[in-house]
Amino acid sequence: MDEIFGVMRSPNAIVFGNGQRHALGQIIGRIGTRVLVCTDQRFAASTAMDEILADLKSKGLDCLVFDGTQAELPLSSIEECVKFCEGFNPDVIAGIGGGSCMDMAKLVSLLLTHGGPMDRFYGEFKVPGPVIPVVAVPTTSGTGSEVTPVAVLADHARDLKVGVSSPYLIPHTAVCDAELTLTCPPGLTALSGADALTHAVEALTAISHPRTPELSQQRVFVGKNLFSDQHALAAIRAIFKYLPRAIEDGSDANARSMLMYGAVSAGMAFGVAGTAAAHAIQYPVGALTHTAHGLGVATLLPYVMAYNAPACLHELMAMGDAIGVTHGTSEQIVLETIELTRDLCARIGIPRTLAGLKLPEDKLDWVAEQSMLSARLINNNPRKLDVEGVREIVQNAFYGTH
Hints:
The chain is of the alpha/beta class and 402 residues long. The chain has helices at 24-29, 41-44, 47-58, 75-84, 99-114, 186-204, 215-218, 226-248, 253-273, 277-289, 293-308, 313-322, 330-347, 364-371, 375-379, 387-399; strands at residues 13-16, 34-38, 62-66, 92-97, 123-124, 134-138, 150-153, 162-165, 173-176. A 6-stranded parallel β-sheet has the order 1-9-6-4-2-3, with helices on both faces. A hairpin with an 8-residue loop joins β7 (150-153) and β8. The relative contact order is 0.11. The mean pLDDT is 96. Keywords: NAD, Oxidoreductase. Residues 189-397 form the Fe-containing alcohol dehydrogenase-like C-terminal domain. Belongs to the iron-containing alcohol dehydrogenase family. Its cofactor is Fe cation.
C-alpha cells in the first residue's frame, strides 16, 4: 500500500457563498487601507463593481481601479498596470474577474514587491519572498486562480505562454460569490467549467512522486496526494452534475454555486498536485489555433485519459464511482468513465477532435515536439511520456481515434 502523504496549500481564508462580495470592505480593511483593484473593462462598467467600490470606500479604503486587463494576459498589460499605479503604493491588491484579472493582481503584486524583469520569475520557486497581499474574487467558475500558487501570462518574446509558480502567489483571501457568475454567457460558462474539469482529472491522475522530506520544499506541484485526491473528486462530482445545468439555465443559482464550488475544489487539487499532458499539449495547440485554453484542454482530455489509463486505473475507477459508474470490470468502468467524459464535453460544445479546433494537419509533429518543452507538465504525467507518446495522443486527438 502506498504510504499516506499530503500537502495542502491554500489562502488564509476562503469565503464562499451568495452575497459574500458584500464582505469585501471588511475583509480588505483588516489587511490594509490602499487598494489597487485589477479588473477588465466589462466588469469595471458593471453595477456589481459600483457596489463593491462603494462598499470599499464606505470602510475608509483608498481605491485605485485598473480596468485594462486583457484576455490571455500579455506581459505588456502587466507592465502597464505597474506604471499606472506608480506613486499609489497599494498595501492590498484585489483581482476581480476571470483568471486573467486574478493573475494580473498576483503578478503586479510580485513586480511591485520585488521588481522586474518578469522573466526572472518564470518557473517554480523563483519568487524570493512574500508579496503584497492579494484578495481574489472570481467572476467565472474555471481557472481556480483564486486559490492557486500559479499565474500564467503571454510573453511575446516567447512562442508559448509562461507561468510563475510559487506558494507566495497564493492569494491572501479568496471571496467566492457565485452571484457574480449569473451573467456569464453559456459559451464562457462551458469553457470555464471544462477547464476546471480538466484541472480536477489531471490532478487526480497526476504522477505519485517518491514521498521524500524534500518533495514539498523543492516542488510547487508535488503530484497526487491525500488532500488533492479529495478536492479533485469533489470537483469532478460537482462539475459533472452542475455544469450542464448552469449552461442550460444561467439563472439557476444552485447550479452556479455548485459549479463555483467545483472550480475552487479543482484549484485546490491542481494547486498542489499539478496538471499534466493535456495542459502541455494545449500550449502549442493554442498558439497555433488562437483558441481558448479551456477549449483546448477539454478537447484533449478524453484522449489523454485513454492514453494514461494503464498507469492510473485505480484513479479513473475512483472518478467513475464519483460520477455513478459502478458496474463492470475495472477496464469496463474506466472505458465508460472516459466515454462519459467525452459525452459531457460534446454536450457542452467542446469539439471532439483537434481538427475541430482547426489545427493544421501538417503541424502535428511540431505540436508534439513543442509539448515536450513543458517539462514540469510532461514529468507530472502518470504514464511516462516521450515525444512518441505525445505524438500518439496528438494524432488520436486530431483524427478522433481512441
